[in-house]
Design a protein that fits this description.
Distance between the termini: 51 Å
Number of helices: 1
Strand content: 35-45%
């Protein structure tokens, strides 16, 4: 059964929330591509989210211009999967395709409609309430 770590970012607030999705709800993401939107009720959020990228179990990034759910060596410049300080440097790197398969571990999404849930507040003692 597939298991994904979903990162949902809210562009209006700049905050993000991470959720784990496994078994039956995770199967609904299989076959989706970067750029597709889906209903966020499977994540426990009212609204819709858009898939923006992700990485596989080893850490290779997903790229929207590599078709399918395969790993490929591609020649890239300074972009997703390769950062350089030298201008014009190209390198052959291993990246993942734009389709979510069971080899994908993390899926990055952006909230298009709705609001993020408030994180659970941890009840901790502050310096004012500590007993001496």
């Amino acid at each position: 059964m597939p298991k994904f770590q979903i990162v949902i970012s809210d562009p209006q607030t700049g905050k993000s929330v991470s959720k784990e999705l496994k078994d039956k709800p995770a199967q609904s993401l299989l076959g989706m591509k970067i750029g597709q939107e889906f209903d966020a009720t499977i994540l426990g959020i009212n609204g819709t989210v858009k898939i923006r990228g992700g990485s596989d179990k080893v850490g290779f990034p997903m790229r929207s211009d590599v078709h399918g759910g395969v790993q490929k060596h591609i020649l890239i410049t300074d972009s997703v999967g390769f950062n350089t300080k030298q201008k014009g440097l190209k390198k052959r790197k291993l990246v993942r395709g734009n389709v979510i398969t069971d080899e994908i571990y993390q899926v990055n999404t952006i909230l298009t409609k709705g609001t993020l849930p408030k994180p659970e507040e941890n009840i901790q003692e502050t310096s004012d309430t500590k007993t001496k």
